[in-house]
Request: fold
Amino acid sequence: KAGVTQTPRYLIKTRGQQVTLSCSPISGHRSVSWYQQTPGQGLQFLFEYFSETQRNKGNFPGRFSGRQFSNSRSEMNVSTLELGDSALYLCASSQQANTEAFFGQGTRLTVV
Amino acid sequence: QKEVEQNSGPLSVPEGAIASLNCTYSDRVSQSFFWYRQYSGKSPELIMSIYSNGDKEDGRFTAQLNKASQYVSLLIRDSQPSDSATYLCAAVLTDSGTYKYIFGTGTRLKVLA
Reply:
C-alpha cells in the first residue's frame, strides 16, 4: 500500500514569490492535514481538509491557503513568501481527522 | 496551559535500559492519543495509538494512558542507539464538532551505546 506522497521534496524560492506544494494521501484516506515544522516552533497545524472541504484552520495568515480535490489529493499555496516561511511542510492523511495519521516525507522550503 | 506538553529533554539512557517518555494534556483534548518518532531531518512516523485507559503493548513499546491524571507515556524497553530520535506526543482536539491534531514539542531521546 503506497504511503503519503509529497512533492516536491525541496524548494528554494525568493522572497515575494509564491509556491504550491502537493500531497497525495494514502488510498482510501479522505482527511488531509498540513503542518509547518520549524526548529523553534515545532509542528504547527495549518489546516485540515475532508472531502474537498476545509474543516479546520490553524493560526496562520491568509497567505497560506489550500484545497483538496475529488480524489483527495491536496495542495497548499503560500503567496508573497517571507524569509520566516522557510520550514519543513508536512502533510498527513487519515481516514478520519481523529484517527491515526500518517505523514509524507515533507517538502523542505527555503526562502532566500 | 498548552493542550499537550512534553519535556524537551534530552533524555539520555544507556543501551538496554527502559526509556520513559511522558506527556500531559489539558481538558480540551479528546481521548485519542498518539506517539510519533521523528529522526533528524525526517518526517514523523507513527509508533503507537492509544484510546482507552491502561496499557497497550507493541513489541518493545508500551503506551500508557491515565485519564484521571491526564497523562500519557511511552516506554521503550531494551533501548537501542537506533531509538535515538525525537518522540512527539499528539492528541486530538475537539472543537465545535471538528477535530485537529495537537502535537507536543517533542522529547529528544539519546540512547548511549
User: Anything to note?
Assistant: Chain A has no helices and eleven strands. The longest strand of chain A covers residues 42-50.
